[in-house]
Amino acid sequence: MTVALFTLTISSLSAQAGARDFFKCKLTEGVKKADMEKLVSDFMAVVRKEGMKGYKTELLWPLYSQDISRGSFYWSTSAPSAAKSAGLEEFWGDSAANKDVRERFGKMAQCESGSVYTVSEIK
Asked: Where are the domains of the chain?
């Protein structure tokens, strides 16, 4: 249901506006930064294999923060448009091609919040 509401919300945005999502997550005890980086690499390989283009995922690891505890990080994915961001959210949650990565992620981390932004690139 969340994905459906998300899709309806951004469908009214310009098809040309880039989008970026942020998920605040925390590693499960014993999981290392390198483990999560490998999982994201595997996810992006699935995205490319499925012919989905224009996406980039970054993990943000805090050097310092007053409100983030050890093991916390942000998963952030850039999409070429808001509509394509919604498509990637659906792919993450529903695609059989991504089932292995999705299940591994559930064992490696938990996310407490998520948000999606349109992007205005200023050069």
From this structure: 2-6+21-119
Question: Structure pTM?
Answer: 0.80
89-116 b/e (C-beta count within 10 Å ≥ 16 → b) = bebbeebeebeebbebbeebbeeeeeeb
Summarize pLDDT for 45-92 with one digit per residue, the tens.
Answer: 999 999 999 999 999 999 988 877 889 999 999 988 888 888 888 888
Please answer whether residues 105 and 114 qualify as being in contact, where contact means their C-beta atoms are separated by less than 8 angstroms: no
In this predicted model, what pLDDT tens digit does every residue of 14-32 receive, in sequence order?
A: 445 789 999 999 999 999 9
**CATH code at 2-6+21-119:** 3.30.70.100
Cβ(118)–Cβ(28) below 8 Å: no
